[in-house]
Each structure stands twice: as C-alpha cells, then as structure tokens.
Design a protein that fits this description.
Chain A is α/β, with parallel strands linked by helices. Chain A has a domain at 4-60 and 125-139 and 167-306: Rossmann fold, CATH 3.40.50.10680. Helices cover 39% and strands 19% of the residues of chain A. Chain A is built from twelve helices and 14 strands. Chain A has helices at 11-23, 48-57, 75-82, 93-108, 112-122, 150-156, 180-185, 197-205, 208-216, 237-243, 250-256, 289-306, and strands at residues 4-8, 29-33, 39-41, 44-46, 128-131, 138-143, 146-149, 163-169, 189-192, 221-224, 227-228, 231-232, 263-267, 278-282. In chain A, strands 5-2-1-9-10-13-14 form a seven-stranded parallel β-sheet. In chain A, strands 7-6-8 form a three-stranded antiparallel β-sheet. In chain A, strands 3-4 form a two-stranded antiparallel sheet. In chain A, β1 (4-8), α1 and β2 (29-33) form a beta-alpha-beta unit. Chain A is globular, with a radius of gyration of 18 Å. Chain A starts with a strand and ends with a helix. At the A-B interface, α3 and α4 of A face α3, α4 and α5 of B.
C-alpha cells in the first residue's frame, strides 16, 4: 500500500494531518503518533497526542482553546476538586469517556492500536491513526528540579524547569505498533510534522525498528520546521533549544534530523544554510484550514521534487 | 464507645440514618453499610450503598430522583454512548469523581474503609460510615435467566427476572471492616434499617464475624420493617418475597430476622402476629425530614423499652 505517512506529536502535527486530508485521499494517510507523553492519572490511561489526533481529525477539537474537546464541561473536575483530588491535569466530562473506555479496554487486554482504531472508525476518521507503539514508552526529563515525567513538566509545571537531558524510557525495548513499519516502508512520502523535535518526534525515532524503517524506506522524508519567523508557535520548543545549547534556527532543526530527512519545509520569513538537503519555503503558520492545506501541499511538493 | 449502630443498605436505610442524625448526637451514630452491591464497571469500583449514604448524609443526594447526586450532569455518559460504551449504569459527571478517586485509592492500596472515611470527613459527615467489609463480597442472584450480578439484575434488567436463590460470594471468608465488630459490641442500640432484608441486609449477616457480634452484643436489636401498608416503598422487595415463596407481611420479616432481633417497628397501618419480639407502630413512610426523625425516634423508643 502506498500513501503518505506523517510522524507526529499533538497539536501542531494534527494540524498538518488535517491539512493533508484536504489535499490527498484520506484513506491513503497514516499518522504515526508519539505516545511518550502517555501517562496514568487517577488510574486512567491518558494518551494526549492520540487524543488530539482523534479530536482534530473527527472535527471535535476545541480549536480556540488549543487542546481538548469542543463543547466541553467541567462538572467532574469540579467535584474532584471538592474531594481534594489532583486537578492539575484538566479532565473534561466528555474527554473522560475516551480515557475511561481506553483504560477499560487495556485492562481487558486490548491494545492501544485496536482501541484507537475503534474510536477513529466510530468517529468516521478515514485516515489511519497508529500509536508509535503498543508498548510503554515514557518521555523523562532531566531538569533542574530533578527527573520529571512529561505531563508533570508540560502541564503541572508549565515547562518552567530548565531541561538538561531527555530520555525515552522503554523505547529501546519497544516494538512499533502493527502497521507502523509497513506504512513507512511502503509509503510514497514520509513527512515529519512541525511538532517539537526533541519532545514529540524523538520518541518515535528512539524506537529502533522505526528508526531503521526510516533509514531503509525509499520514500523521501520531509520535515516541516516547527519554527515560524524564528519562533515556535506554541509550547516549549524555543526555551528547550536554548537549554540544550542549540541556536534557535532552522540549521539546528536540519542538523537534528541530519541523515534522516531529505528535505525541510520552512517558513517564508526564515532561512536555512544547511546545503545537503532540499529546502522549500511557505508561510507555515497554520490557523485556517486553508493554511493547513497549503503547508501540506508545500511539504508534498518538496517531497515530490526530491523523488 | 457507646452509641447507635445502623445496619443498612442504600436509599431506605440512608433515610433512617439521616433521621437518626436529627434526634441523637451525630458523632454517636455508626452506619454499617452493605457492599454486596459493589461492582467494577468500566474499570471503576462502584459502591452504590456507600455512595448513597455519603450523598444523603452530606446533603448532596438527589432526593427527587431517588439516587445519585443533586445538580448532576450527564456529559460523560453522552460521550460514552457516542463511543458505543456501556451505558446501562448511569454515571453522572460529578458522581464519577467519587468512583475515580475510590478506584485510584484502592489501586494504591488504600482500603474502602479509609477512602470512605476520608470522603465523609471532607464532606463534613459526622456520623461514621463503615463498609461492612474491605474484602470483596458479591451478591449473586440465581434467576430464571441464569446467575446475575446484583447491578445487572437491579439496574440493567430492572429486577424483571424471577429470583430463586441469593448468595453472597466471598462473605464466608470476609472480615468485617475495622471498627464494625467494636461498634456492634459497644453499641447501646442496634437498628436494622428498612432496607431489603434479602438483598441489602443479608449480605451483612452472611459475614460470620458480624453475625457473631450481633448474637453476642448486649444491645437490643430493632429492625424497621421495609413494608409500608403491606407494600415495599421502593425496589423489588415485594416481588422478591413472592418469588421466594414468602407471604408479603411483617410476620415474614420478623421470621426472617428470628433469633437476631428483639423488636420490629412496623407501619401504623400494618400488623404482625409474631409474639416473641416487641412490636411497635409508627407511620414508617419517610418522605420529609420530619418523617425520618419520627421513624428514628420510634425505633430508638422501641429499643429503649426492650432495654
């Protein structure tokens, strides 16, 4: 099966995938999604990036808020607070349905893959959403306040601690989820979404069989830079690059993916002096659906030019 | 410590306990609550009778509806339905907070007792609410459609199947929760709430150490009949008595508790011809708070007369 594969984290990546669905046949698109952010909270298995893909591609995402579901309500959280429960991770009433069903499914022996596929089917999502792995992988941050789980850092501490190192516990031992390697090996084009390279894309690359498939595939691999006008749209990318001692520019992004990507799509206002990969420009800020389709089209065009 | 102990199931029993709190010092009241209805649903540990006590005594019960919380909303359930999840057991958004916290606490190694006590304290409930046991006990019904878990019968099948026999799986091996035996042994008065004797009170009596404590205690034991004007106020009591071949009258109730109770409080419109226990009358229908206080007062008076 040929098609387009996107390696993606949450919000930014979901926008690119949504754009892609406007310009190619949705059934030919496979999103391979970071699960390094997954964690257990109050006994519930939460997969933030998978959820963002599911909500975004099914039209349920709260785009104004930037995360979670549209038309969300907060009665559960308010009752939880009243009981002294942990409320740093915001669980909406409707959002809870996904977490509860996923947790119950996993307890029954279903895999994250099959649960995700069932929800996607139920919600009429035609693209494939594959977790990178059904095995546990946890993004762990070595910070100036000690070792942190990803959600602790990202949500509870609002990315305030300085990060010295990042590791992906379990990645070395993890097998790609069913379909992941096949999708990469038979793809016409592989895109790396403008998700945080260090926190959202690296977990995928840390799984040996995924890294190998990306090295082996004949498909051109094009990354979309997360930098827009030299800044990150959202999240800790810029702050993190500083803490890791990296200049905040596309040369750093290109070098980070060196040996892996054949092309890098960057914002019209930015440049990149790395010469051994193809570079293309487009306005990469994705606000409207048209923006998303434009970025997807530009990434596909860059890949086609390499091919 | 002396005081009043109430053996209780859910709704009817909670009304008596609430009445009792109007007429004696709340800190002297201990409710020992049926947990035979407890079950796992979507991975959540649900304790329906404990919840009813907690909601009722903290003023959070939805009295119009007869179960659950006041001011409840249903966004979770509607999202769950949309995902094809099991929706036969109605889980409100606020109610979910209790189930999620309890389940997480149990997974951490806390007991049902300590979790219940923490919630009661948080909500300002001064009476003690003790689960009958921290061990798993499950009320199982032998019915004309096969063996049924209690909630399956009670909620999903609306008590429609005919019941031939009832057993309490695990009761023989169960230890009373901390404080249960002590409360019974040191009580001034033990009341059996007007809960269903076969489904809600028998699980407590099936735990050997509770049965022994009730036999050994010097406190008078008074049951409040669940029949009002020869009918049950709510639930399957009358239908079940028919299926078990019992006449629907207070003689059956008195005989069911024979050897255990010293007195039976019955409705003003009813009678009882059993002569080896003390009988008292009061209007036992509990609608207003005044009704509840009246029934509690009558039960205490009957016990005091025996004493």
């Amino acid at each position: 099966m040929s098609g387009t594969v996107v390696l993606t984290g949450g919000v930014g990546g979901a926008k690119l995938v949504l754009g892609l669905l406007q310009v190619v046949d949705p059934v030919t698109v496979t999103a391979i999604v970071n699960t390094g952010d997954d964690f257990r909270h109050l006994g519930l298995h939460i997969s933030p990036d998978i959820d963002t893909l599911l909500y975004t591609l099914s039209g349920k995402a709260n785009t104004a808020q930037g995360w979670g579901r549209e038309d969300e309500s907060w009665a559960f959280l308010s009752a939880l607070r009243e009981l002294g429960g942990e409320d740093w991770f915001l669980l909406g009433d409707r959002d809870m349905a996904l977490h509860v069903l996923r947790t119950a499914g996993l307890a029954r022996g279903d895999t994250l893959s099959t649960i995700t596929a069932a929800v996607a089917r139920r919600w009429g999502v035609e693209a494939k959403i594959l977790p990178m792995t059904d095995d546990p992988v946890a993004t762990m941050l070595d910070s100036d306040v000690g070792e942190l789980e990803f959600q602790r850092y990202f949500v509870a501490l609002r990315c305030a601690p300085a990060i010295h190192a990042i590791r992906f516990a379990g990645a070395e031992q993890a097998s790609p989820a069913p379909g992941v390697v096949d999708a990469i090996m038979t793809a016409d084009i592989v895109l790396i979404a403008p998700s945080n390279p260090f926190l959202s894309v690296d977990p995928l690359l840390a799984i040996p069989a995924i890294h190998k498939a990306l090295s082996d595939t004949l498909a051109p691999i094009v990354a979309v830079s997360p930098l827009v006008g030299g800044q990150a749209v959202k999240g800790p990318t810029v702050k993190l690059m500083g803490e890791l001692g990296l200049p905040v520019d596309n040369d750093s992004i290109a070098r980070h993916y060196a040996g892996l990507i054949d092309g890098l799509l960057i914002d019209s206002g930015d440049d990149c002096s790395v010469t051994d990969i193809a570079i293309a420009h487009t306005p990469t800020l994705m606000v409207t659906l048209e923006d998303k389709a434009r970025v997807a089209r530009a990434a596909l065009a860059l890949a086609a030019a390499i091919d």
